[in-house]
Amino acid sequence: MAYFIQFEDKSLGENTSLATLAGVKANFSSLTNIVLTNHASDLHDKYANSGVKTVLYQDENFTVRDLAQTAEFLFNLLKNSNDTYIFEDSKLGNLVAARLAAKLAVPFIPSISNIKVGPNSVSLSREIDSTKVVRLSHLKGKGVISVAINGVVEKAKAEVSEKPMTISAEEPATYVEKRDAGNDLLFAKTVVAGGKGLQDAEGFKPLEQLADKLDASVGATKAVTDVGWLPVSRMIGISGVSVKPDIFYSFGIAGAVQHTTGMDQSKHIIAVNTDPTAPIFKLADYGIVGDANQVIDQLINLV
Ligand SMILES: Cc1cc2nc3c(=O)[nH]c(=O)nc-3n(C[C@H](O)[C@H](O)[C@H](O)COP(=O)(O)OP(=O)(O)OC[C@H]3O[C@@H](n4cnc5c(N)ncnc54)[C@H](O)[C@@H]3O)c2cc1C
């Protein structure tokens, strides 16, 4: 048994396409579609022809942006089942999926592009961007995955029911500072990211000043979060978050593929590095060979 979990959030314009549902259905014969929404009444017709049993969980105040509350609701709903929980491979999908997996204490395997359901396990393939490497995982038992799979939408009647969405009062959602949670990185139009080239934790203070001036979010490499100069929530890359801002400023970052996987879809990339052969320059639209700390100071004075 598997659950596909979707969000239909009118205030965000967030919805999941039926093509993704069809792609999941093609792989899991026994599938229930769970939709968390603030406008269930508009959705009955959409899912009544999807061929997948659908439960619409309705609360007019629901917003998927409240990641903690969304994950909390799903945790309470699913904690006693022993299944595969599937999300769309989107920023919000992955954020909620990761939180749910942590709460359930089960593996989370993101960005799956191919699935084979076997008698005792589910085989999952994930292509790692720009490396031509495919990572194969086998999920035995309960787990959370996110998928980038589309299928052909074939109209077939399906049962659609509506239930209220209620958040458990016993374990209320906890709110954390937006910047510390790292959520702002995902929605930022501008990201200023720093690497080991900023030398030490002190080097990130001017970067944060610059971020305030540019209305940007601060990101970092794993090398930086590993030594505690910034929290792990700021890590961009294969082990952290993927960002796609209009402008990505990269300061003192070498450009390892594990990092660039998480930012190479940015519209414009500006890189500063003392080493003219640094791999980041292959990606950058504009490159400055120079000291990142000095360039940051100059930018703070300029903007
Ligand atoms: C399984 C695995 C997963 C990983 N996941 C991630 C991930 O998700 N995200 C991630 O970021 N990394 C990840 N890494 C680590 C990654 O491989 C790199 O080690 C890391 O990205 C390097 O960070 P960096 O560029 O800050 O540091 P470095 O590699 O140390 O590079 C520092 C750069 O700063 C430049 N520099 C030095 N001084 C200055 C100065 N004054 N001004 C300007 N430039 C200067 C140097 O020329 C150099 O290019 C992962 C590694 C593995 C093995």
Automatic annotation (TrEMBL):
Molecular function (GO) terms for this protein are: electron transfer activity; flavin adenine dinucleotide binding
Q: Which cofactor does it need?
A: FAD
- Which InterPro entries is this protein grouped with? DHS-like_NAD/FAD-binding_dom, ETF_a/b_N, ETF_a/FixB, ETF_asu_C, Rossmann-like_a/b/a_fold
Q: What domain of life?
A: Bacteria
A Pfam family of the record is ETF
**Any transmembrane segments, and where?**
none
Q: What is this protein called?
A: Electron transfer flavoprotein subunit alpha
| Name of the gene this protein is made from | etfB
